[in-house]
Design goal:
Keywords: Calcium, Lyase, Metal-binding, Signal. Pathway: Glycan metabolism; pectin degradation; 2-dehydro-3-deoxy-D-gluconate from pectin: step 2/5. It catalyses: Eliminative cleavage of (1->4)-alpha-D-galacturonan to give oligosaccharides with 4-deoxy-alpha-D-galact-4-enuronosyl groups at their non-reducing ends. It contains six helices and 31 strands. The protein is mostly beta strands. It has a single domain, classed as Single-stranded right-handed beta-helix, Pectin lyase-like (Pectate Lyase C-like). It is globular, with a radius of gyration of 20 Å.
Length: about 400
């Protein structure tokens, strides 16, 4: 069964379809799709896959008229993130950016407003920001229906705010910026230092949900969650071609991160990822129903006694014999310390020689704060994961 399963994932990861509204030189991540879901629909008459997020909204051909249903489809620790559900729609009409005085129709103008907003786009866009995009609370950035990219400049900073949903955006080649004045609310500005060059930086924020995005090739992390952030879900994303993918926790000495709770679910961790998928400090981390396809150093690491609950994942090691180990325990005090940390592998499929080093006392009660949803059997993931990353949503059709 393991051989068949591995062959299925090898096929899925190389299958492609094309957008009905292609951008010139459409990059491979936007095209990446499996034909599994479309084949199953024709056989069963159902578009449901067992992915609870997607099954909540994707089967509606009128998804464009009912966009805000998405806000009630969250799972995991970030399930309370409603974004701009209770506000008006705001349509982005231009790729232009002005970090100090953004005008109507710019993405920056939308995200700094005080009131809740559900932000959508009126055509394909590749937005190159001049400074990091500082966001205000209760905002949804919803890229469905178009090819929306944020790239080749500083990217998203979710700092000191709450209730943010980021959905359907291709975020790549993000770079540092700063030593500049940047607007963060109407009539309010911040003097920013040099940013890290993360794809999505979540800093001292709560109730945040990043779903169905594609992320690659940023200067620092793809998604970093630090400085007391909590109530976070990272789901259905496709990540590839990056060194340090995700950092959870500011530093070993930053005690407020002990309250951090993060769910990482239904993601596809693809080619060219090296490490930190994620790397965790303190806190509680539910890593559930993801597919890992060949990390170059390690997949899941941590320090400062994080609790890691790995359930129903598929770990497919590369053929490199020095990259079979999934976990990396980091401590200056040696084995006797990390062996006390609660790290478990529950129902994971370990393929092509993948190894998961568990630790801790192994009791179920130890993982109560690191449990946020019911894990699906790992054997079902071929029908769930192929829709990871930015979706090919055409108006008037199922996504």
């Amino acid at each position: 069964m393991s051989i068949i399963f591995l062959m299925c994932f090898a096929f899925f990861s190389h299958a492609h379809t094309f957008s009905a509204r292609p951008m010139t030189h459409l990059p491979k991540p936007i095209q990446w799709r499996s034909i599994q879901s479309s084949n199953d629909q024709s056989k069963t008459g159902s578009c449901r896959t067992g992915n609870p997020i997607d099954d909540c909204w994707k089967c509606d051909p009128d998804w464009e008229s009912n966009r805000k249903v998405l806000a009630d489809c969250g799972v995991g620790f970030g399930r309370n993130a409603i974004g701009g559900r209770d506000g008006e729609f705001y349509v982005i009409t231009t790729e232009d950016d002005d970090p100090k005085n953004p005008s109507q129709g710019m993405l920056r103008h939308a995200v700094i407003q005080e009131e809740p907003l559900w932000i959508i786009f009126d055509h394909d866009m590749n937005i190159r920001l001049k400074e990091e995009l500082l966001m205000n609370s209760y905002k949804t950035i919803d890229g469905r229906g178009f090819n929306i990219q944020i790239s080749n400049g500083p990217c998203l900073t979710i700092q000191g705010v709450t209730n943010i949903i980021i959905h359907g955006i291709y975020i790549h080649n993000c770079v540092p910026a700063g030593n500049a004045v940047v607007i963060d609310a109407p009539n309010h500005y911040q003097r920013r230092g040099i940013s890290d060059g993360d794809g999505v930086s979540i800093f001292g924020a709560r109730d945040i949900w990043v779903d169905h995005c594609t992320l690659s090739s940023c200067h620092d992390g793809l998604i970093d969650i630090v400085y007391g952030s909590t109530g976070i879900t990272v789901s259905n994303n496709y990540m590839f071609q990056h060194n340090e993918a995700m950092l959870m926790g500011h530093s070993d000495d930053f005690v407020p991160d002990k309250n951090m709770q993060v769910t990482i679910a239904f993601n596809y961790f693809g080619e060219g990822l090296v490490q930190r998928i994620p790397r965790c400090r303190h806190g509680y981390f539910h890593i559930v129903n993801n597919v890992y396809t060949g990390w170059k150093m390690y997949a899941i690491g941590g320090s400062a006694n994080p609790t890691i609950n790995s359930q129903g994942n598929v770990f497919i090691a590369s053929d490199d014999n020095v990259a079979k180990e999934i976990t990396k325990h980091e401590t200056p005090l040696g084995d006797e310390e990390w062996k006390k940390w609660n790290w478990r592998s529950d129902g994971d499929l370990l393929l092509n020689g993948a190894e998961f080093t568990t630790s801790g006392n192994g009791t179920s009660g130890s993982y109560a704060k690191a449990s946020s949803m019911v894990a699906r059997p790992a054997s079902l993931l071929p029908s769930i994961i192929p829709s990871a990353g930015v979706l090919n949503c055409n108006i008037g059709q199922l996504c």
